Amino acid sequence: MGMYNKTVLDHFQNPRNVGKLENPSAKGEVGNPACGDMMYMYLKIKRNRQDKEYIDDIKFNTFGCGAAIATSSMLTEIAKGKTLEELLAVGETKKQRIKVLKDQIISELGELPSIKIHCSILAADALYDAIDNYYGIQKEEK
């Protein structure tokens, strides 16, 4: 584990927002068969005083390496309290949004070994998968 900094190790050893939400508003599920990581993201979405939908609660279950757990944990801290509008406004396409969020996750963690960058992409993808799920956008058949 010498390749991880203190922040990454902290999020791996003491992950935030782990678990499953009862009756979530939305659920995201992504996996990378190549590395075996699986991520499940659960959102509880409510409306704020401005009548905007926001992430009131978020939890995750990640099956994978330390970096996969750390990036999922950091993602939940970034996303919690944000409005869906804010999260969707960072890019035109899902791919662009994932890139922006991936960069934010890495920046907040301090750094990730290049071989583990895909974990932050998966974490961001899991969030946007849950948001798509919330809006009823069906995944294209694999």
Describe the structure.
- α1 (6-13) packs across α2 (66-79), α2 crosses α5 (117-134) and α4 crosses α5 (117-134).
- This protein is of the alpha+beta class and 142 residues long.
- 43% of the residues lie in helices and 20% in strands.
- It has one domain (6-134): Sufe protein. Chain: A, CATH 3.90.1010.
- The termini are far apart.
- It has a three-stranded antiparallel beta sheet with strand order 1-2-3.
Radius of gyration: 14 Å
Envelope shape: globular
Write down the overall mean pLDDT. 93
End-to-end CA span = 34 Å
CATH class: Alpha Beta
Number of domains: 1
Low-confidence stretches: none
Oligomer: single chain
- What series of H and E elements makes up the topology? HEEEHHHH
User: In this structure, how is the largest beta sheet organized?
Assistant: 3 strands, antiparallel
Query: Per CATH, which architecture?
Result: Alpha-Beta Complex
Largest sheet, spatial ordering of strands: 1-2-3
**Helicity level, as a percent range?**
40-55%
Structural class label: alpha+beta
Query: How many strand elements?
Result: 3
Strand content: 15-25%
Helical run tally: 5
What is shown here, in short?
This protein has a single domain (6-134), classed as Alpha-Beta Complex (Sufe protein. Chain: A), CATH 3.90.1010. The mean pLDDT is 93. It has helices at residues 6-13, 66-79, 84-88, 94-109, 117-134, and strands spanning 26-32, 37-47, 53-63.
